[in-house]
Amino acid sequence: MNLEYFLKSKAPGWMDDKGIDADIVLSTRVRLARNLEGSRFPLSFTEQEAQQVNDMITKAAISLNNEELNFSNFTISEMPALQRQVLVEKHLISPLLAKKEKSASVLISNDETVSLMVNEEDHLRIQCLLPGLQISEAYSKAEKLDSQLEKQLPYAFNEQFGYLTSCPTNVGTGLRASVMMHLPALTMSKQIKVVTQMLARLGMVVRGIYGEGSENLGNIYQISNQMTLGKSEEEILQDLQEVTIQIIKNERGAREALLKNSRIVLEDRFNRSLGTLKYARILTTEEAAACLSNVRLGVDMGIIQGVPLHILNECMILLQPGFVQQYAGTTLQANERDIYRAKLLREKLNLKNQKLMEKGEERHDV
Amino acid sequence: MICEHCQERQATVTVTQVVNGQKSEKHYCEICAQNFHPFNLDFHKEEQIPIHQLVSNLFGLPVWNSGTQEKAQPVIQKSAQCPTCGFTFRRFLNEGKFGCAQCYETFGKQLPQVLTKIQAGTSHVGKAPGKPQRPDETIRKEIAAAREKLQKAIVEERFEDAATLRDEIRDMERKLEGGGVDTP
């Protein structure tokens, strides 16, 4: 596959709307950090070592290609900045990898659910992204690949410390599992603060999806395990699973309470947001994300009809700066981006609008 | 402004502390500030704390931005330097990252005290290359759990409990070495 295939303006494979609990859990991500014995970590290795590591991992991964899992290989330094940004926004590569120049590369599976990042902070990062809540499925997919790669690659492993990683926050299992959740009701009812504190006590971290410092954007939160050492993979995954189910329960409870107490306020807010997305001419990332969150909640609650979840998923990805610029076909200033963003979202939502109008007219006739 | 602690000298150091999301600011003079030695303190907070500093704070070593108070630092194994990548323990604390896999052996002794602050334990349990399931897994888990308790007991100065735990760990380790059979 060529790079254009992975850059197209479409929600990535992991953002399907058919996952389990997909209205609240958007996606599940699992990543394993691995390093090769005999080469220093990317923090201190030479260009030559970097090249060697890159060759070894790429060769091993490509040799596993089959019908089910087919990798395409891209060198980061050969990509223009905007394309790197689009891959980051699709969560196919990390922001750190996008900045790397030293023999860094990525292998992406054709369905975009698996990506192997080479020479990021560690030599190898195996990442698996699935839609909805699928923690053990995502792990077993990553683990299977890891076991196949380990036959060809000499992993740096130590009896006491487990898989050795550059940062001691990843050592041991090298496993970071995370779920991306849409939690508007917990946010509106200010319960999210309590949830965040509770999670911290349980060794979980809460972050926004659009990178650092975007905690509140679009009411989307990424929850992941903090500890990687002293707990087995099963325990880590189990803990995250339990926490996630608990949060889903809380969110559903908060939604019911909101609907009971202030239905008309919600109806007003959701429809205003839909109107903004459909007719606004200037939209900042913040406003677009907030409106999308409202519309999404409206759809989940049955207040807004006729807007499919997959369109909203797509819009959530498309509103990011990289995608907006790709859509415009050029790099843009922030204020120009806001204009193109509004145009892009308008087009996406109007596609449906036309269909809706047709349906509406039919109903009128009957 | 006058130092909040001694109420005498001019306050030149601002200490920002965040506890459970509650931010509090204290103003001390240079001398009083030096006397405080807790972690999670960041003097001269001007911007966002860089990650390495956070790591350093976590590991109980305050970072001094002014660079003049170096003498107060405990001497940390000056001699230890990783033969493969040249990293020292000090550099590790600054960067928050290791230079190579060898570092884990080079700094193996100091590492557990660092890991207890950021991890669930100090020993790996779980998957290992080539060995999908280890039979002595459960013992290892128990040892890890007991080690954690031991650490806690020491911190809380419950030394009798600590001694009992230490003996238990020793027994379990013996079991492990003896291949699961208790050898007296």
From TrEMBL, chain A:
Matches recorded under Pfam families: ATP-gua_Ptrans
Q: Where is this motif: RDXXRA motif of the pArg binding pocket involved in allosteric regulation?
A: 337-342
Q: Which segment of the chain is annotated as a signal peptide?
A: none
Q: Which residues form the Phosphagen kinase C-terminal domain?
A: 24-254
The UniProt entry's GO CC annotations, sorted and at most eight, read:
extracellular space
Judging by the UniProt lineage, the source's domain of life is: Bacteria
Q: What EC number(s) is this enzyme filed under?
A: 2.7.14.1
Q: Which UniProt keywords apply?
A: Allosteric enzyme, ATP-binding, Kinase, Nucleotide-binding, Transferase
Which catalysed reactions does the entry list for this protein?
L-arginyl-[protein] + ATP = N(omega)-phospho-L-arginyl-[protein] + ADP + H(+)
Q: What does the record say about activity regulation?
A: Appears to be allosterically activated by the binding of pArg-containing polypeptides to the pArg-binding pocket localized in the C-terminal domain of McsB.
Q: Which residues bind ATP?
A: 27-31, 91, 125, 176-180, 207-212
- GO process annotations (BP): phosphocreatine biosynthetic process
Its job: Catalyzes the specific phosphorylation of arginine residues in proteins.
Question: Could you say which protein family the record assigns here?
Answer: Belongs to the ATP:guanido phosphotransferase family.
Name recorded for this polypeptide: Protein-arginine kinase
The scientific name of the source species is Ureibacillus yapensis
TrEMBL record, chain B:
Gene Ontology molecular function: any one: zinc ion binding
Q: Which residues form the UVR domain?
A: 140-175
Q: Name one GO biological process term.
A: stress response to cadmium ion
Q: Which PROSITE patterns match?
A: UVR
Q: What is this protein called?
A: Nucleotide excision repair protein
What is the species listed in this Swiss-Prot or TrEMBL entry? Ureibacillus yapensis
